Amino acid sequence: MTQIPSLLARSIDNFVDGVAAAIPRLLSGLVFLALASVTVRIVLSLVRTSVGRVYVGDRELVGDLIVTLTAIFLWFGVALTFLKVLGMGDIAASLGTAVGFIALGVSYALSEMIEGTVAGVYLLRDPDFNPGYRVEAKGVTGTVAAIELRKTRIDTDAGDRVVLANREIESRWTHNVADES
């Protein structure tokens, strides 16, 4: 029975020593998070401003996508570095590796959607493919009504609205300049 108070005293001493050792790392981590938060906000503001100058009007969606992806990468890097500052470098490395494999699997599973989104970015940037232009794509001839990241809507002469995936259009389409005159 005399061992229990001794065991309890050692446990409390070990706990107090652990907390005392963790306080400097925790304070360092909090300072890092404060500085990282300010830095990320400044970087995102600069990216948003730069992208906003390039992608204006109906192309703002592309700019928003770029800003969002930049934010995800920056905050993920902050989270991994925060774990490293707290002394959990092995966890940060494991987490980074796991997220990399998950991202690889997700990108493979969503490859057609990603292909469509990339094609949409190309179509949105193409000066010969804009709303109001007459085009022929995938056997459909008509006027481009709307271009989105994954789909394009074309109004045919028969009055139908055809929705085509951008990945199907981007590889081969024709701008009918003579029909616009």
From TrEMBL:
It comes from the Archaea. Residues 114-176 form the Mechanosensitive ion channel MscS domain. InterPro entries: LSM_dom_sf, MscS_archaea/bacteria_type, MscS_beta-dom_sf, MscS_channel_2nd. This is Mechanosensitive ion channel domain-containing protein. The chain crosses the membrane at residues 26-44, 65-85, 91-110. GO terms for cellular component: membrane. It is found in: Membrane. It holds the Pfam family MS_channel_2nd. Keywords: Membrane, Transmembrane, Transmembrane helix.
